[in-house]
Amino acid sequence: LLMFLTEYAEFLHCKGKKFTDFDEVRQEIEVETDRVTGMNKGISSVPINLRIYSPHVLSLTLIDLPGITKVPVGDQPPDIEQQIRDMIMQFISRENCLILAVTPANTDLANSDALKLAKEVDPQGLRTIGVITKLDLMDEGTDAREVLENKLLPLRRGYIGVVNRSQKDIDGKKDIKAALLAERKFFLSHPSYRHMADRMGTPYLQKVLNQQLTNHIRDTLPAFRSKLQSQLLSIEHEVEVYKNFRPEDPTRKTKALLQMVQQFSVDFEKRIEGSGDQVDTLELSGGAKINRIFHERFPFELVKMEFNEKELRREISYAIKNIHGIRQVLQVTGLFTPDMAFEAIVKKQIVKLKGPCLKSVDLVMQELINTVKKCTKKLATYPRLCEETERIVAGYIREREEKTKDQV
């Protein structure tokens, strides 16, 4: 019972050591930060894991991320802003976490980096909670009432205002209890916030976070359970397949090679037929692109061909006269065009189709090669097999291309 009533903290990097003095906890955080990032304001994506046990706190997991740094200082690299941004996105992109978008009240909410990043990964605002700090530092005559009432830039989960200890309070050893009392007094006495005092402050934020995180976990748990079960079934199937696996058995190596080649063949066929399990939503590819080449690109190239009806009629006339020779003076031309004249004119027109046909063959061949490359990505763990498969299949496609061009 005494263990549950005593407040203490544990660090993951100091296993077995319990900290009961929270000034020592603060010092340990500073020491570990300097050890990981250096002594001059460096950064690292490696987290410092701290677990606090207390009868006065709720069960929450918080990840404290750095604010966006625009200009590097100390030992920070030139691309510090991008590094911090990437670090933040790494955490807030996870669908199973809530985002606390913290913004000072004495800055323009429209310029909030926190809200901007949250909007990128959570455009519907399903996981974002706004937190407004430094309410006590706003200019006289101004307040954040519209923001806290969720009227200025509305969020689905709304905003909560808090008043934290100032640096002077921290240096003066002002404890948390006194800070919470001062925060409560601020909201109760401020004319713009006292009507919403019960929905403001750190204790209320703590309670809301606990409740909403619990609800969020409850909503996402079924999907995670289903995903884990499907992964478990897949792994169990692999275990069954490889239970009696002997790496040096040549028959197994041959069988594995044949299976991979057969799978490549199936993948290639599915991409051409459009029956694959993965659908590209960014561009046309495989059979769909080849279909487009034949039914849209090829007719378009034909339409672009120059056609002069007057010139064609003149050529037909000359061809007919040349076929009749001197006989055209002695007899009237027949009703039907002579076969030789017809063939001469048609052959000349068909030759014009050669260019569009060859162009279409090139486009189809290129798409087939791209499809082969996409299918061989699954063989990436076997570079030699991947390279040889791509070389052989691409070589066959090019061979067929040459024969097709000869026929054209």
UniProtKB/TrEMBL annotation:
InterPro entries from the UniProt entry: Dynamin (IPR022812), Dynamin_GTPase (IPR001401), Dynamin_N (IPR045063), Dynamin_stalk (IPR000375), G_DYNAMIN_dom (IPR030381), P-loop_NTPase (IPR027417)
A GO-annotated cellular component: microtubule
Coiled coil: none
MF terms (GO), sorted A to Z: GTP binding; GTPase activity; microtubule binding
GO biological process: receptor internalization; synaptic vesicle budding from presynaptic endocytic zone membrane
PANTHER family reported for this sequence: DYNAMIN (PTHR11566), DYNAMIN-3 (PTHR11566:SF54)
Species of the source: Leucopsar rothschildi (Bali myna)
Domain Dynamin-type G span(s) in chain numbering: 1-222
Protein name, entry field: DYN3 protein
PROSITE patterns: G_DYNAMIN_2 (PS51718)
Pfam families with a match to the protein in the record: Dynamin_M, Dynamin_N
Keywords: GTP-binding, Nucleotide-binding
